[in-house]
Amino acid sequence: MSPDAINVDNIEFSYGNVHAVKGITFDVKEKEIFGFLGPNGAGKSTTIKMLTGQIFPKKGKISVLGMDVTKKTGRVQARIGVSFEQTNLYEQMSAVENLKLFADLFGVKKFDADKLLAMVDLHGRNRDHVSTFSKGMKQRLMLARALVNQPEILFLDEPTEGLDPVSADNIRKIILKERERGAAVFLTTHDMMEADKLSDRVAFIHEGKIVALDSPYHLKQKFGKRLIKVETETASGELKETEITMDEPYTADDVRSLFAEEKVITIHSEEASLEDIFIQITGRGLTG
Ligand code: ATP
Q: Ligand 1 pocket, 45 CB below 6 A?
């Protein structure tokens, strides 16, 4: 069996008396896209900061690529890529200079800045000062910077937040390509559609605790009710929508009688979204 990319054992973190992370345990497998989902203030950023050695847990253990991140912080950081929400780039330097500076910092000798910038759709702006970039452009530059050292694990905090749909989709494609290259990806988001599309497994974090962890498919099977939505036409020509719960003993009879007694116009099945399941488990949504 291949080793895990990340092992987290019962970690805790507090900011003064704010208990932000309250004892969480999980593993991220090699080449896995692991989605970390939760609403604002749930503890996502605090967790990602602990995993990348920017802050140390007050309790518990974290092993990244087989190393204790609190003891081998520099060695871990040289082998991971990190792209955070807040843009800590050098504004008075060009995009290429920012990448080069970062490469020097981690002793990366060989990398193709132009290729990386083209990958995040910044070609043509390589030599421009970062101060002239929009927020979305800076975010894409952060991602290019995270890829300079061909990281074995990529940590992305809300990578598509605030981007236009085309840029967001491009970032999602890069994430999938990185996994193909062999990287594991740890992704925090409160966009459940994104997490659903990309993640092999997702963890739901709520008030500093993991409240569910599984593949989106299994979570939906376990918590979500599948529905059949049927649109029928009444005698007076009006449309009426009926919902039938799937996987129940009476489902087949309900469908049969609907077809026998009414004029069916459309029929389609619908499964619960991760958002529905999050609400079911925690009593609150992922946004707001
Ligand atoms: P968001 O999606 O808004 O970034 P999050 O899930 O990343 O939220 P965290 O930023 O980890 O959440 O915050 C977890 C808790 O810790 C919140 O109650 C937050 O107010 C608190 N917190 C975070 N950073 C600090 C800090 N530097 N000082 C004090 N409290 C903090």
A: yes
